[in-house]
């Protein structure tokens, strides 16, 4: 069934979009990632203009995150205080990111920058997570091995402005979470993603938060950052396509619920290995696009009169 | 006698335009609705004569349909530091978003180069690329790329020998408008020629506009972007909450 999108100005297959939304929703519910890092490249692939794909992707992430966070709330797995601090940083980062995005669009380097960011971040994080969770799995299988401490104290814990985060069982400075929030918000706006795939490992490895509250808290924060990004894109460039978003959302919200149920059944280490493998696969796919000779060397972009 | 002579003069003076076009379109409004997958327009007409056709050289018909023009940037990728990135770019001040040419004979036979230049009939003539040579070293390649990409998107087409011409009088052709249509006024031009020279030209307009919900959303997005953004947000939150509520009901 073909459907015409009013903002993207093209006709697409509605069923394919519903399915795409569904897959992303399952990922969102399982891993606490918004799924933007999968949907945005796929929308490019369908021929949706990059600006529309990025802005609409943000809108979709709002819906799947709301659905996901409600499931997490029932398990009391959201640290609101930590979420609030991350959010404060996230909004600053997102505003800066939208500014840089429009600058790069003018220079014609936005695609390259987005692809490079994907390759670098997905590669780094995927490799880190895979190594860590494989190690954890091995330790769990060999009884008697030394137990790793929940979090190691290093310079991050010596900064001022300390705050108690009861749900996470942490007493740390607000500066590291603010910085994490800001850098994720920045990347989120540029890459058209929620940033969960960066946020989740940052919370575990940098802030030392317990895995059980990480997903809920990350989703909670992502809702607001992507909501802000959606409205900013709608106001500055009119690139949010509601029809496209609704199709993806319909599939997405259902998928998120299913994903959250699957997530409960899997063990944390297995979950992290799966996420790591997926992150690496997307990274490899994008890297190939940059390295292999493209079929068409030329591309068109709407111009502005000098 | 004087009256008769005057009438004779008047009759011989007129026939510079002895053949004129009478033309029509199957529809002059195209509405883009949510189920829009492109549209086929029947372009037809007749050649009106007030005396027998000269009959020496064959009559040919050329029809062009041109969508609204916008500026375009053409970028070229090159391998730098091992990866492919955009390097050179050329700004084209105005290129039609849609351009179709249909003719009753190969275009070079149907119309002389002089007439093509004067009336900007072929695709390269319809693209305005003033000053492109100053911005890139290889300007023709960038123009070729623009035409190649737009042809692949079904935006540009040259359909020679697709106008059916009967008895040098009746003509018809179908022009396909693709699904990725830009809204605006589409100029339809008709030319009749003999020996490559234009005898008569005629122009009509097809109005392409978004309709129904599509139109409402498009206008809202551009005129009230904040309200549109908040609407998008509201729908997203409602859908997320709705799905969550529905699933917890299901589990009970």
Automatic annotation (TrEMBL), chain A:
Which Pfam families would you find in this protein's record? TauE
Q: What is its main location?
A: membrane
Tell me which UniProt keywords the record has, alphabetically.
Answer: Cell membrane, Membrane, Transmembrane, Transmembrane helix
Presence of keyword Mitochondrion = no
Q: What are its GO cellular component terms?
A: plasma membrane
Compartments where located: Cell membrane; Membrane
Q: Which residues cross the membrane?
A: 12-45, 51-73, 85-104, 110-130, 186-207, 214-236, 242-264, 271-292
Q: Does the keyword Cell membrane apply?
A: yes
Q: How does it sit in the membrane?
A: Multi-pass membrane protein
Family membership noted in the UniProt record:
Belongs to the 4-toluene sulfonate uptake permease (TSUP) (TC 2.A.102) family.
* Protein name (Swiss-Prot/TrEMBL): Probable membrane transporter protein
Automatic annotation (TrEMBL), chain B:
Q: Which InterPro entries match?
A: CHP02186-rel_TM
* Alphabetically ordered keywords of this record: Membrane, Signal, Transmembrane, Transmembrane helix
Q: Which domain of life is it from?
A: Bacteria
Keyword Transmembrane helix belongs to the record: yes
Alphabetical list of Pfam families matching this protein = Alph_Pro_TM
Any transmembrane segments, and where?
Answer: 226-250
Which residue positions does the secretion signal occupy? 1-18
Protein's UniProt name: TIGR02186 family protein
Query: Which organism does this sequence originate in?
Result: Szabonella alba
Q: What is the lineage of its organism?
A: Bacteria, Pseudomonadati, Pseudomonadota, Alphaproteobacteria, Rhodobacterales
């Amino acid at each position: 069934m073909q459907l015409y999108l009013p903002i993207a100005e093209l006709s697409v297959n509605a069923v394919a979009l519903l399915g795409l939304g569904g897959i992303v929703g399952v990922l969102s519910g399982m891993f606490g990632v918004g799924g933007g890092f999968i949907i945005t490249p796929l929308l490019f692939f369908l021929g949706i203009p990059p600006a529309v794909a990025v802005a609409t992707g943000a809108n979709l992430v709002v819906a799947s995150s709301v659905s996901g966070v409600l499931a997490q709330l029932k398990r009391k797995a959201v640290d609101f205080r930590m979420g609030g601090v991350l959010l404060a940083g996230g909004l600053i980062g997102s505003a800066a990111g939208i500014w840089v995005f429009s600058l790069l669009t003018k220079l014609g380097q936005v695609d390259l920058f987005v692809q490079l960011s994907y390759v670098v971040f997905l590669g780094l994080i995927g490799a880190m997570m895979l190594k860590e969770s494989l190690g954890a799995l091995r330790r769990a299988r060999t009884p008697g091995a030394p137990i790793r401490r929940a979090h190691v104290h290093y310079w991050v814990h010596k900064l001022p402005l300390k705050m108690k985060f009861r749900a996470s069982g942490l007493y740390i400075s607000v500066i590291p979470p603010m910085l994490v929030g800001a850098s994720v918000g920045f990347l989120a706006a540029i890459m058209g993603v929620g940033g969960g795939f960066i946020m989740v490992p940052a919370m575990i490895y940098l802030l030392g938060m317990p895995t059980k509250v990480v997903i809920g808290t990350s989703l909670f924060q992502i809702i607001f950052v992507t909501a802000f990004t959606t409205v900013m894109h709608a106001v500055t460039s009119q690139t949010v396509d509601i029809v496209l978003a609704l199709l993806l959302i319909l599939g997405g919200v259902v998928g998120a619920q299913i994903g959250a149920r699957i997530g409960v059944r899997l063990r944390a280490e297995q979950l992290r290995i799966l996420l790591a493998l997926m992150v690496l696969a997307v990274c490899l796919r994008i890297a190939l696009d940059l390295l292999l000779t493209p079929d068409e060397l030329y591309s068109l972009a709407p111009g502005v009169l000098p | 006698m004087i009256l008769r002579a005057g009438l004779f003069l008047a009759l011989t003076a007129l026939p510079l335009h002895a053949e004129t076009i009478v033309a029509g379109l199957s529809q002059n409004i195209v509405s883009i609705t949510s189920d829009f997958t492109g549209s086929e327009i029947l372009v037809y007409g007749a050649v009106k004569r007030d005396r027998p056709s000269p009959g020496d050289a064959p009559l040919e018909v050329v029809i062009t349909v041109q969508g609204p023009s916008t500026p375009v940037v053409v970028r070229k990728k090159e391998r730098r530091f091992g990866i492919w990135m955009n390097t050179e770019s050329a700004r084209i001040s105005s290129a039609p978003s849609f351009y179709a040419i249909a003719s009753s004979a190969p275009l070079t036979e149907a119309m002389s180069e002089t007439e093509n230049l004067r009336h900007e009939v072929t695709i390269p003539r319809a693209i305005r690329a003033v000053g492109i040579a100053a911005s890139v070293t290889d300007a023709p390649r960038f123009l070729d790329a623009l035409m190649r990409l737009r042809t692949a998107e079904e935006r540009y087409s040259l359909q020679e020998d697709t106008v059916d011409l009967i008895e040098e009088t009746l003509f018809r052709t179908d022009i396909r408008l693709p699904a990725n249509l830009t809204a605006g006024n589409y100029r339809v031009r008709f030319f009749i020629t003999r020996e490559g020279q234009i005898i008569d030209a005629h122009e009509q307009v097809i109005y392409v506009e978004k309709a129904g919900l599509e139109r409402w959303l498009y206008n809202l997005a551009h005129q009230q972007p904040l309200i549109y953004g908040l609407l998008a947000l509201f729908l997203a939150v409602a859908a997320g909450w709705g799905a969550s509520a529905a699933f917890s009901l299901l589990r009970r």
